[in-house]
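Apologies for my clumsy wording, but are you able to produce some protein sequence, whichever is easiest, and the tokens describing how it folds?
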Amino acid sequence: MSLLAIPSGSSGNAGEAGFYPLNINQSLRFNDNDSAYLSRTPASAGNRKTWTWSGWVKRGNLGSDQFIFTTGTTTGSQGLYFNFNSDDKLNVGDYSSGYIWQKITSAVYRDVSSWYHIVISYNTTEATASDRIKLYVNGQRITAFSTDSNPSLNYDGYINGTAYPHGLGRFGGYDGAYLDGYMSEVHFTDGTAYTADAFGELKSGVWVAKTPSVTYGTNGFHLAFADSAAIGDDTSGEGNDWAPNNFTASDVVTDSPTNNFAVFSPIDSLVGSVTDGNLQASTATSGSAKVKATFAIPQSGKWYFEITPTSSGNFSYVGIADGDANAANSVLYKAQDGTKRIDGAFTSYGATYTNNDVIGVAVNSDDGEVTFYKNNTSQGVISYSLEGKDLRPMVSDSSSSVSVTFTADFGQQDFTYTPPSGYLALSTANLPAPAIDPAQQASPADYFNTVLYTGDGNDDRSITGVGFQPDFVWFKQRSATRSHLLVDAIRGATQRLKSDTTDAEDTFADGCQAFESDGFQIGTNNTVNVSGGSYVAWNWKAGGTGVSNTDGTITSTVSANTESGFSIVSYTGNGSFSATVGHGLGQVPDLVIVKARTLTRNWCIKHKDLSSDKNLSFSTAAEAGPFGNGGLADLTSSSTFGFNGVSTLLSSNNNGDNYIAYCFHSVEGFSKFGSYTGNGSADGPFVYTGFRPAFILVKRTDSTASWGIFDATRNTFNAFTKALELNSSIAEVTATFGDMLSNGFKWRYTGAQNQSGGTYIYMAFAENPFKYANAR
């Protein structure tokens, strides 16, 4: 039946139709359980010294050897290997009783929620050995390798030879190491080595496909996977078709780099296995078992998907669940006794279902309604508001002794039943346009950006590359023990605060000296510019020098950017417990940070997920607690914030003292302020943000733990390993922390940000909204 998925590049969102230079409407699904692959043996030899392979890949299951493009013997003892290793790194090399040359990336590729563009540019005639094999991911040339050796000059490799079969999705003629996932828009050029720019371009910070102008050569090909009746057809004009093996017509799907669909997520599950391009999940027979999808249900619109239990259906749940790992807040339709579960409470609902019954789920976000269907028969409307929740499709079982298998269709295949009128599939082309929209030539980097630089000790030095004139800049020397430095446009560039101390503001003329159109000017002080020191500066755009605001009982000066949900607020305290201060956001803040400028006092921090009597402070690792010297009240007003305390308001509203506040609210696709529960495992919790993060700040609230800062500029690939502590002056620390992904982040260690049962808050800012994000 109708997918109701708007073709890529032609959704109703203003500007999106022209965003993608090349609309890609389909891909080929590779299911490793089916031993599915494409094969071709060249009839005549091509150029074995020079060639290019380009393709878009969306990963399925992880943690096993999976070949992408290869040639080799039936035993696997000779040939070119190009594959994901079992540790999820990319590996490429020629092998013959040992590697002749080999490159293994330092980066791991564990993002299953979106698409990678991968290019190998192979040219052994290059004089410089390191230029003979160039590997690109999402337009960026990879230069960090854990293993790195090069072919000899004019070396003849295995690709384009006639002696061995070539393979897509498995190793040449070897029966094994099959790919699980998707491929789209695959090109091969015989005789010419192209860079990634021949096949894509960077647009508003997003790497996108374009129509290449390339010479394919003798064995060149272009596989568009446009015809399910002729899966391996070469559309380059060279006639180099590939033979499909163990595919069916249903393996040509509409999931593509320009219209990415939801799938089950193996990185966000307590489950036995996720297979079949992540459209099939089988629960384990021990312990709790559940798996969520890669998309959250949007806060507006109407959405539909189908789940079919194919084994032991009497023990299954199908529904939508909150993002936290325990899925306590959820809407579930339970098969065994015809009940529904709403936020932990079970009540009678609808009929039972069993194996092979198709359970349709229709979510009306506009009206706050969820309707479950059994084989196209409505089981009744449930009133349930999605506002402020990250609810994602979820399956689970109700018995630790039974394995349940589910298959999903989020719209990438024809639904079994026609969805209700006006309901859409879960694909990126259908997602609402983000507030900061790359299709409108806007980028999150227009409002938040991170820059790195090396100190040179020179006075009046301009640091550029921010992309805008910042209104709030936060500095930290990475390479030495040195305090943080925070400056803003209301207080002035030379007025210093330090997050790691309780110190009052002071004038610091040799630190940040001025805000400039593309960055800032710095002096000679070691805090910002010691010769040879490495530095990071996080930059936010507010609204300039500020205007008067009388929304509260205290008049404030506010520099606000309502588009990005950020304001800087200056005010003078009056000592009143009932006082309020205007913040200028126009929405209820999710986070307010206050510091006394004229007093040595703790920072005061109120996050939306802290309980009423609790605040945090930047200058300490202590758990959240009541502020005897004055804290911030619950965040409930779209125009003001207020105070609480036991006896005084020294830290937030002392009479006659000056204060500065930084206020934030979540903006879909740009910023997120939330919480999660740690599990103390190296397979840590996944946190859904709805964007590819550029910056993450995390603090445990129920116990002592440092504030951790992570960003994608210092950590250019996964796993991210570099952190700073904002409550400490120590230098950058290194450990294997986790992965930043196209739709959130996942912890892969058991340290301060992931203790078992620990409660954490976070703030995060985007590199790209999920609607457009490449896999990372």
Observations:
- The chain has one helix and 59 strands.
- The first strand starts at residue 27 and ends at 30.
